[in-house]
Amino acid sequence: MPGITLVGLGPGDPAALSQAARDALANGQVFLRTRHHPVVIQQAAPAGRPAFEDLLDSDTPLATVIERWIDTLLDAARTDAVVYAVPGNPLVGDATVRVLLQRAEEAAVPVNTIPASTVVDAATAALPPSALALGVQVLDTLDLALAAEHAPFGGGEAALSPLQPLLLTNPGPARVMAAACETLARLYPDSTTLLVLNHTPTGELHSVETALGSLADATGDMLAIYLAPVSPLESARHATGLQRIVARLRAPGGCPWDREQTHQSLMRAGIEEAYEVLEAIERDDAAALREELGDLLLQVYLHAQIAEEAGEFTLEDVIGDLSAKLVRRHPHVFGEAHAADASDVLQRWDEIKRAERAERGVDEAAHPLGQIPAALPALMRAQTVLRRAVRAGLLPFDPDMLQSRWRALAAGEEPVSAETLGDALLATALLAAEAGLDAEQALRERTLALEAAIRGHTAATPDDLY
């Protein structure tokens, strides 16, 4: 009967293979996840069977390799009884099965499962009793490799936390291992030691300690890889680790200075950290930018922790609100809408913001400019007000009036006063908005250039700058 039967091969002991699995391997059109498994070697005549790992020798992207493999299985299953033999239990920790189940449902191809003991069962017997006491994350090594291959746009794809025990299934071949190690290196310290669980031809397991940096070169018939949880104090390369550290600083018995801080007392620090980020960007100093972004991120975590203590909101609320907002305001990315260019994006962004305010009961007519932070620098605030007013058709004067006043002031035809100088600065901000430039940044860059010229020359002249 056409369709697919997923056969669990178990952790490796051929004697533990069920009779149903033996019958399926003997009678169906067999496809293998790997040839390097004791049951496959003894029961499934691996030399003549197609195997997923055979497709991994090329430079084809891994996601494409998986899709082509699933296409092969589904095409065969439309006319024949297909058996897909997978280490362990096929429904636990296998990335190819996950994709296959989704695609099979879409294609209306029936799928049956013959279960077996999981890799977790074998690991429980092979590892120390305390190793899995905190629960365990089970991931296919292929998932980590996919996340690495999708870099720099694969952030967050590997849904794992180094603060919890991790068991990686289906290790190998070399290409997958090398890419998976790249993902692990983003989250675990270089000093991390792993346990590689190998199975012998008879299905017995033995563990070998391996350094993270050497994992890509590991050899043998690997069944799984175990990584112990990492303390956030040892290596907080994960958002949750940083959250725990900040909470500890604020907790009773923590840091006296951190415990005294409030939203208000941290206001100046937030501004200073933001400007230090800008300074690192202006210097094109990646190392400094990395450090300053961390300092700015600390402000977010501190404010969220203070708010949680007051019962206002949590860090998860902040992240959840932001994530929902980004998805909601980018329907051209996460939905069916279309945006031809950046101007279309901005127009849609404004429309969505207005709809959001209307849902909250905010009178749009009463707030034509929206919310503009009062703490913005004056020139930046001026450009924001002018840009929004022009876009909404609400500018209360002829823009040429500002330009005329600016020229009159420059020509000495009007006295310099707070009013005339303010109009001149408004004219500059309007000119920047019309040109798509950032007036604040333009002035900052020219001021820095002037300062450098002055510091570099005892007697600086305009020629030194221009």
From TrEMBL:
<dbReference type="Pfam" id="PF00590">
    <property type="entry name" value="TP_methylase"/>
</dbReference>
<dbReference type="GO" id="GO:0006950">
    <property type="term" value="P:response to stress"/>
</dbReference>
<protein>
    <submittedName>
        <fullName>MazG family protein</fullName>
    </submittedName>
</protein>
<dbReference type="GO" id="GO:0046081">
    <property type="term" value="P:dUTP catabolic process"/>
</dbReference>
<dbReference type="InterPro" id="IPR014777">
    <property type="entry name" value="4pyrrole_Mease_sub1"/>
</dbReference>
<dbReference type="InterPro" id="IPR048015">
    <property type="entry name" value="NTP-PPase_MazG-like_N"/>
</dbReference>
<dbReference type="GO" id="GO:0046076">
    <property type="term" value="P:dTTP catabolic process"/>
</dbReference>
<dbReference type="InterPro" id="IPR035996">
    <property type="entry name" value="4pyrrol_Methylase_sf"/>
</dbReference>
<dbReference type="InterPro" id="IPR004518">
    <property type="entry name" value="MazG-like_dom"/>
</dbReference>
<feature type="domain" description="Tetrapyrrole methylase">
    <location>
        <begin position="4"/>
        <end position="142"/>
    </location>
</feature>
<dbReference type="GO" id="GO:0006203">
    <property type="term" value="P:dGTP catabolic process"/>
</dbReference>
<dbReference type="GO" id="GO:0046047">
    <property type="term" value="P:TTP catabolic process"/>
</dbReference>
<dbReference type="Pfam" id="PF03819">
    <property type="entry name" value="MazG"/>
</dbReference>
<feature type="domain" description="NTP pyrophosphohydrolase MazG-like">
    <location>
        <begin position="261"/>
        <end position="334"/>
    </location>
</feature>
<dbReference type="InterPro" id="IPR035013">
    <property type="entry name" value="YabN_N"/>
</dbReference>
<dbReference type="GO" id="GO:0008168">
    <property type="term" value="F:methyltransferase activity"/>
</dbReference>
<dbReference type="InterPro" id="IPR000878">
    <property type="entry name" value="4pyrrol_Mease"/>
</dbReference>
<dbReference type="InterPro" id="IPR011551">
    <property type="entry name" value="NTP_PyrPHydrolase_MazG"/>
</dbReference>
<dbReference type="GO" id="GO:0046061">
    <property type="term" value="P:dATP catabolic process"/>
</dbReference>
<dbReference type="GO" id="GO:0047429">
    <property type="term" value="F:nucleoside triphosphate diphosphatase activity"/>
</dbReference>
<dbReference type="GO" id="GO:0046052">
    <property type="term" value="P:UTP catabolic process"/>
</dbReference>
